[in-house]
């Protein structure tokens, strides 16, 4: 499968790239700085650009079988539209290039999953991470209105733990530990691209 991964130099993006290559997929990594992704593989192609630039996004989308969006703002908590605007540009490029399959990583607490969070996590997400939440809400709204074959994955709280392949996934589930390994998020996304069982669903993944 030909996959374009946006946010490929982030921690979740790196896991996606590594696991996709291990599974034999051809990966196009969309990056601002290719030196930040220290992976070499004959099936890995880099496209350098900015998600705010429609032309460079379109270049990465062209010819792909599926698009994976793992955009983030790192540790910057300032107001941003990088997730929403970047995703809107991906959706436009996908429609122009007849690419239908879109996987998007947001966060638990976005959309309907807000009601399944603890009071402490609600407070945290609504205050310290207010700007992140607003960006994710706009991002999800664009995805749901896209008309594409989309799936939204909402991690309960990302960690750098190794992949286990064991996790809970559902549209209306609580977070038992409020933790999930980025490697397991990548595992779920790549399995879903093969199985195609979760199209049109927004799901929480948690331990």
Give your account of this protein's structure.
There is one protein chain. With 207 residues, the protein is of the alpha/beta class. It has a single domain, classed as Rossmann fold, CATH 3.40.50. Helices cover 35% and strands 22% of the residues. It has helices at residues 11-22, 54-61, 82-96, 119-126, 130-144, 182-195; strands spanning 2-6, 26-31, 44-48, 66-69, 101-105, 149-155, 158-159, 168-170, 180-181, 201-206. The strands form two sheets. Strands 3-2-1-4-5-6-10-8 form an eight-stranded mixed sheet, sandwiched between helices. Helix 3 (82-96) links the parallel strand 4 (66-69) and strand 5. The two termini are 28 Å apart.
Helix content: 25-40%
Q: Please indicate the percent range of residues in DSSP E strands (runs of 2 or more).
A: 15-25%
Number of domains: 1
Ends distance: 28 Å
CATH topology: Rossmann fold
Task: Output the structural class.
Answer: alpha/beta
How many β strands by DSSP? 10
Run of helices and strands: EHEEHEHEHHEEEEHE
What's the CATH class, please?
Answer: Alpha Beta
| CATH architecture label name | 3-Layer(aba) Sandwich
